[in-house]
């Protein structure tokens, strides 16, 4: 199963957008992500609907941040992307009447729900502004020596 990288990719895009002067076109973002502008527009639409981005059509248009990066958390972006599946592993549903399967699914399902709650709670504590400042620190270290 291929990993869903939309969250990481959108966080990356948002930090670049913060550093860009003016709106960023879907075409430019598509080149950055090696994808199609239609995919970009579809993905970014959820962020716009939640009020994190604005978009303007036509010449000189594009996508722009509607809030500061400090006001947007990783969880906000995750939710705007439609809450993609967090884990590739899951429970079996081959034979719901099997008591062994029921016992296994109860334990695994509970552990997965608990882990997902913890992860999403942590995502809610991390702003994209923090990621941008970490990037700035890393960039300064790279250029300093």
| Total strands | 2
Rg calculated over all Cα atoms:
19 Å
| Proportion in helices | 55-70%
* Poorly predicted spans: none
- CATH third-level topology: Arc Repressor Mutant, subunit A
The total number of structural domains is: 1
| Sheet of most strands | 2 strands, antiparallel
The main sheet orders its strands as 1-2
Overall pLDDT confidence? 94
What percentage of the residues does DSSP assign to strands (E)? 5-15%
Name of the level-1 CATH class: Mainly Alpha
CATH homologous superfamily heading:
Winged helix-like DNA-binding domain superfamily/Winged helix DNA-binding domain
- SSE order in H/E notation? HHHEEHHH
Q: Examine the secondary-structure arrangement and name the CATH architecture.
A: Orthogonal Bundle
Shape: elongated
Distance between the termini: 40 Å
Structure description:
By secondary structure, the chain is mainly α. The protein has one domain: Orthogonal Bundle (Arc Repressor Mutant, subunit A), CATH 1.10.10. 58% of the residues lie in helices and 6% in strands. The protein has six helices and two strands. Strands 1-2 form a two-stranded antiparallel sheet. The longest helix is centred in the C-terminal third of the chain and has 25 residues.
């Amino acid at each position: 199963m291929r990993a869903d990288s939309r969250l990481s990719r959108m966080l990356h895009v948002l930090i670049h957008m913060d550093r860009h002067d003016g709106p960023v076109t879907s075409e430019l973002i598509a080149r950055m992500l090696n994808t199609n502008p239609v995919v970009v527009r579809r993905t970014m639409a959820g962020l716009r609907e939640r009020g994190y981005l604005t978009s303007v059509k036509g010449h000189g248009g594009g996508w722009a941040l509607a809030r500061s990066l400090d006001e947007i958390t990783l969880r906000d972006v995750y939710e705007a992307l439609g809450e993609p599946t967090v884990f590739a592993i899951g429970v079996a549903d081959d034979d719901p009447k099997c008591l062994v399967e029921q016992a296994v699914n109860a334990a695994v399902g509970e552990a997965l729900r608990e882990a997902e709650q913890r992860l999403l709670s942590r995502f809610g504590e991390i702003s994209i502004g923090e990621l941008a400042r970490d990037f700035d620190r890393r960039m300064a270290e790279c250029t300093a020596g």
